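Folding Query — how this chain folds
Tokens — whole-number codes for backbone shape
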Amino acid sequence: MTSSVGMAFPWLSLLLAIPFLGTFALLLWPGEPSPGRLRGITIAILAAQLVASLALLLVFDPQLSGMQLEEIHSWVPSIGLNYQLGVDGLSLPLVLINAALTLVAAVCTRDFSKRPRIYFSMLLLISGAVNGAFLAENLLLFFLFYELELIPLWLLISIWGGTERAYAATKFLIFTAVSGMLILGAFLGLALFTGTVDFSLTPISSDRLAMGSQIVLLSALLVGFGIKLPLVPFHTWLPDAHTQASTPVSVLLAGVLLKLGTYGILRFGMGLFPEAWAQLAPGLAIWAAISVVYGSLAAIAQRDMKRMVAYSSVGHMGYVLLAGAAATPVALLGAEFQMVSHGLISALLFLLVGTVYRKTGTRDLDVLRGLLNPERGLPFTGTLMILGVMASAGMPGMVGFIAEFLVFRGSLLAYPIATLLCMVGSGLTAVYFLLLVNRVFFGRLAITPASDNPVEDARLDIQLAPVAPRETLPALALALGVLALGLFPAFLGHWSEATTTAMAELPGLVASLPGGGLG
């Protein structure tokens, strides 16, 4: 349904216009503006986008489960491409997360002397593309926005990344290109098999398309979005991309762009093929359990703080797939919470890891010790890191606990063994992050491998440069968000519950399948 206010003003087009027009403004800005001025303009544009995103809360009706504020215009009708936007309880929180984290990425950008015009333009372009993907109701329009963020992110990694940035950026490009090919192939296959050029977001029943064809198309979508998520075994691009990306880009990648995968699986996998989804659901639960356990075990083996946080994302994104497989109202609400929770927590952790690296010059767990030292270390950074890892491990009082509890509670009856394995993965989260905090932040302050001869330790008793208040504000804001949603989860549930409940009641979707094997 479309509210009268939404019909009166194109709110959703505004969310596209702000970042896209901002991109063109930066690229066409006359003269050679200073990097600081470009950064200030970008922050102002992204602040306006955040305000416009928050304004949606004033015109969005949380009691309605369907699309709202719809904008529908014919574009290229001969191929079924229409400008068709809408927002519901699944996409609204993700639009807000995109606006908030893109602003955080711009604010926390420190070294922008290298091609700043292109850098900040790419940030804006990615934010607009992600908004478009979350708001698109037309399949081809979604694909256009989904692909639009590919090249800008590749540029952000390949130009402003680490020493191995070319390898990481190319690997990201190849994996994401394959993801896009599979998704487009599934959308075009839908048109081919149904004999129409209708690319609207309408559930497909077995009366319209044979079950075998549905399963083939759904499988292509699952692999395509599974690469973006990422799920095992399509995850190998993510740790390399995170390791080589700068801190702001890692914030965007983990906090926003991975959600295109989870959103796509739920919106287009479950939403388009509910009957085929029910057939594949037991296998999806197994896949989710494998990804969660593997991601957690791989994180334990890491010695680079950033790679450890990257592998944690592989595990935590698996919870969303488990919730989707169960497809109960509680589980799907938990999936929404998990997407928001992971966005905030992963962004917080990557910000803090970036601060540690900037102040110490290393992320090696075997080198760093005692950074919680109140006089010469990074006490406030360490405190926020402890809060972040507790949230990621699902400690009560934080949004991570709410998300995991809802996912596990909603999935347990449908797939008990897969859910229990995911619970084990949640327990392993506490293990690897405890290793990180214990090694890096406790003990005697040092940035050197442990030595039997303290005289040979050249970097014992060091004095680290203090972290300026303006450097801690983005991380503090994210930490407060983690706590606020953990203490008042009804706020997020208020906006999403109607939609997630309706998704669990899609025609042909079996909400609780009796499991076999890992089910």
About this structure: The chain has 20 helices and four strands.
